[in-house]
Amino acid sequence: xKNTNFILIAAAAGLFNLSAQAQNNYSLYTTVEDFANxxxxxxxxxxxxxxxxxxxxxxxxxxxxxxxSVGTPGALQxxxxxxxxxxxxxxxxxxxxxxxxxxxxxxxxxxxxxPLSGSINLILAYFAGSSGGFDTLDNILPTTIxxxxxxxxQNTYTFGAEAVKLVNADNANGGTGTFAYMDLxxxxxxxxxxxxxxxxxxxxxxxxxxxxxPEPSTLALVSVGGVLSLCVINRRRQA
Length: 239
Fold this sequence. Notes:
The chain is an alpha+beta fold. 27% of the residues lie in helices and 34% in strands. The N and C termini lie close together (7 Å).
């Protein structure tokens, strides 16, 4: 009996530990619903379910309606009538957990269909305060560009310096943890006219200092761990 109890307890502890480790990586944008509020400047930004670069059906943190719920797998399609433009993913000033993730982020990455020419970079835009304060539009260059195969690339950005700038902007505005404006954007330059590409799988590595609503996968782990704990209690009673 003692050995059985020990195994069940160890299994439950292992599940909870895996859940905690998984929280280091957060999905920001990945489903059609996540990209629903995207807008374009110099290009057309359209959520699509016909192309999906990561196969993830769970809404990301940037989803302002149902983060962590099951959504529609897809991506954001960008169409160009000139040599470049901006795709703003969605304003996040009403999402304090998103802001906190970026303030404590070490890196950020996203996938995209590789264009035949040109470059694709990340833009961080924010304004910390209703008047005065910081008014910033940072063009962040990728630290690494990885060929994932099948015409898909991944850009990874070292984000520590940007995180410090966000914290400083936040502190200058009273340290409220909220911004008057906050958005991520993709900047594409020197592409061929009439080019179309898709972006997807925006992820951040972070250690947030505030809590969010647990994602369904996390809740599932907790539920399984709870069942295992109940099994232990029941086994003890029978003994």
